[in-house]
Structure formats: structure tokens, C-alpha cells
């Protein structure tokens, strides 16, 4: 008979539940190591039909490691699973594992695509760079705030200009300099590290023909292109290009109940960082591109801006960019500024 396995994965231990013929035949725990989990499953289930677990911090590692062990690993959407698992009277790891095994047996779950380690390395690189840039901005604001207390207003400027002004202002105040200059040294080091990660990103982008293809779109730079490719991985992962917009949370949410039927704000599901980059690209396309880069997409966005306002128009253009970029990856064609109507 077919056997179904549910895994409740935590940082230290993994609870395993195995079902067969509509009932649980074994339940237990083992360390959260894919090899140990695989050995435990094989000991109590010779040929499991499905091994499912929720998406989470360890999901990528578990999925690829269990797949290498020859197990039919399936990662399911955590939000979807929690709506069902929360119906149990007592919230325990054991009950969650039982619930996941029942979902596997019933087939009532939503599987998610687990990214490759290569794509995750790129995403980690992007996230690390963004974190360093955020820390740099935060430290800049802290330095400005500390110095305002003593009547020292740092003029506008970034980079070397900011460094010069800060050192100049604290030059005649020894006690304050002992406080501010260590912060400034950390600020400089953060900028250097962020610049190195940025150079690594640019070098990776230059080596990819797909990224060069995406960068033919006005407003799309190396960071946006590499982030998009790392998220999508392969165009065949989506049944059509229009799905990408909703996958990134750039389509409106709908609520309908009886006589009530309205569209709300965008869903904001999916990759938040990539969604923000596409919004920035749309903003650049609508406001900063030169007359030489005029295209129908920009004209369409400017027309929407007159009717709906800038923010809604930028969101619509961001969604359209996501769709166009997927189509370009699928066909291998460069961006055609006068192709078709984007409406």
C-alpha cells in the first residue's frame, strides 16, 4: 500500500509522521539532518509515495538533500498548510506532522517551486549587499543626529563629501571626535564591503547572456536583471508570462461576497525585494529615461499617470515589465520599444 510522510521541520529536531491506508502507522523524531531523516523514513516506510514539509528557512536544504537521497520530497506553501493545521485542538509538532501526512495522503496541498542552490546564492548575495547598504544609511542618519545635538549640521552629500564634512566639523571638538570618528570608520568599511559585493554582482551579470538581454529594457539595470533571473530561474517554470505579475504580488486583490464585489490594493505576495526593484525600474522608465528611449510602454504608463496618478501607473508598468521580461527570456528576443500595445 502507498505510504505518505509528513515532516514538521525545526532547527533542532524533525517530527516524522507516516500514514498508510488512511491511518498513522508510525510517528517519531530525529535530528534535523536530511540524511538522518531519510534513514528514519526508510526504516519505517520502504517506498513512500510523498514526503511533504512546509516552506521555511531549512526548506531549500531539505528539499535538495532528500531528493538526492531518492525520496519524493515536496515543499508545500506554509500559509496554505497553516490554515488547515490550525484547526487542530492542540498545536504541537507531532500534530503538525500528522496533519501534513494527511494532506499528502489527500493530495490537498499547494506545492511550491524550490529554487536551486545557484539561484539562492545569487539571492543571498543581493540580500547581503542590500543589508550593508541599509546599515550604511542607518549609520549615516545616526551620525547626523548625534552631531545635531551639539549644533553641528552636516551639509547634504554622500560618500567622500559626507566623510569630509564630518571630519571637518569634529576637528575642533576632541571629546566628540572620539565618539563620532569610530562610527565614521565603520561607515567607511561598510561602504567598501557593499561596493565589493556590488562589483561581484556586476561581474556575474556580465557573464550571463540572459541578463544582458533583460538590460536592453530602459530602466532595467544589472541588479534588477540578476534579481529577476534568480527569482524566475527558467521561463518554463510559469505556464505563461501573465502569471508572473500575480506571482510577484503586482496584481490587485479581489473580494466578493454576495452583493459586495470590489478590487483592493495589490496583493504584495512573493518576492518583496524584486517587487521593489521593478517599481524603481518603472519609476526610472517614466521619469528619467531620455527622449531617445521613447517606447510604447512608457507612453502607456504616462497615459495611466494622467488618469490614475503616478503610483498606480508605476505599479502597472512594474507588472508589465515583469511580464515583458519573462517573454524576452522565453523567446530570446531583445526589447522592442515599438512592439505591440502593452495595454
UniProtKB/TrEMBL annotation:
Annotated InterPro entries: Transp_IS110-like_N (IPR002525), Transpos_IS110 (IPR047650), Transposase_20 (IPR003346)
Domain of life (superkingdom): Bacteria
Annotated ranges, domain Transposase IS110-like N-terminal: 5-149
Pfam hit, one: Transposase_20
Domain annotation Transposase IS116/IS110/IS902 C-terminal: ranges: 212-294
PANTHER family in the cross-refs: PUTATIVE TRANSPOSASE FOR IS117-RELATED, TRANSPOSASE FOR INSERTION SEQUENCE ELEMENT IS1111A
NCBIfam families (UniProt xref): transpos_IS110 (NF033542)
Protein name per UniProt: IS110 family transposase
Species, as recorded: Paracoccus benzoatiresistens
Amino acid at each position: 500500500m502507498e505510504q505518505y510522510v509528513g515532516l514538521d521541520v525545526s532547527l533542532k529536531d524533525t517530527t516524522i509522521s507516516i500514514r498508510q491506508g488512511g491511518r498513522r502507522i508510525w510517528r517519531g523524531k530525529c535530528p534535523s539532518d536530511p540524511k538522518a531523516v531519510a534513514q528514519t523514513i526508510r526504516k519505517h516506510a520502504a517506498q513512500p509515495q510523498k514526503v511533504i514539509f512546509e516552506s521555511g528557512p531549512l526548506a531549500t536544504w531539505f528539499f535538495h538533500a532528500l531528493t538526492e537521497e531518492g525520496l519524493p520530497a515536496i515543499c508545500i506553501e506554509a500559509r496554505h498548510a497553516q490554515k488547515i493545521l490550525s484547526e487542530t485542538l492542540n498545536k504541537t509538532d507531532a500534530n503538525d506532522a500528522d496533519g501534513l501526512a494527511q494532506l499528502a495522503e489527500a493530495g490537498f496541498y499547494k506545492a511550491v517551486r524550490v529554487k536551486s542552490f545557484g539561484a539562492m546564492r545569487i539571492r543571498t548575495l543581493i540580500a547581503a549587499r542590500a543589508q550593508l547598504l541599509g546599515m550604511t544609511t542607518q549609520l549615516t542618519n545616526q551620525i547626523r543626529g548625534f552631531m545635531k545635538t551639539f549644533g553641528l549640521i552636516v551639509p547634504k552629500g554622500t560618500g567622500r563629501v559626507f566623510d569630509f564634512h564630518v571630519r571637518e566639523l569634529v576637528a575642533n571638538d576632541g571629546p566628540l571626535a572620539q565618539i563620532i570618528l569610530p562610527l565614521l570608520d565603520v561607515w567607511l568599511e561598510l561602504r567598501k564591503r557593499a561596493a565589493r559585493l556590488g562589483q561581484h554582482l556586476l561581474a556575474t551579470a556580465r557573464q550571463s547572456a540572459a541578463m544582458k538581454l533583460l538590460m536592453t529594457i530602459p530602466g532595467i539595470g544589472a541588479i534588477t536583471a540578476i534579481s529577476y533571473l534568480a527569482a524566475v530561474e527558467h521561463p518554463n517554470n510559469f505556464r505563461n508570462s501573465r502569471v508572473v505579475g500575480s506571482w510577484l504580488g503586482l496584481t490587485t486583490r479581489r473580494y466578493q461576497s454576495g452583493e459586495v464585489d470590489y478590487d483592493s490594493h495589490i496583493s504584495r505576495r512573493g518576492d518583496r525585494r524584486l517587487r521593489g526593484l521593478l517599481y524603481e525600474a518603472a519609476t526610472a522608465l517614466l521619469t528619467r529615461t531620455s527622449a531617445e528611449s521613447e517606447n510604447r510602454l512608457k507612453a502607456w504608463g504616462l497615459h495611466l499617470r494622467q488618469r490614475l496618478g503616478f503610483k498606480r501607473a508605476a505599479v502597472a508598468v512594474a507588472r508589465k515589465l515583469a511580464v515583458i521580461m519573462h517573454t524576452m527570456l522565453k523567446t530570446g528576443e531583445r526589447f522592442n520599444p515599438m512592439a505591440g500595445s502593452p495595454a
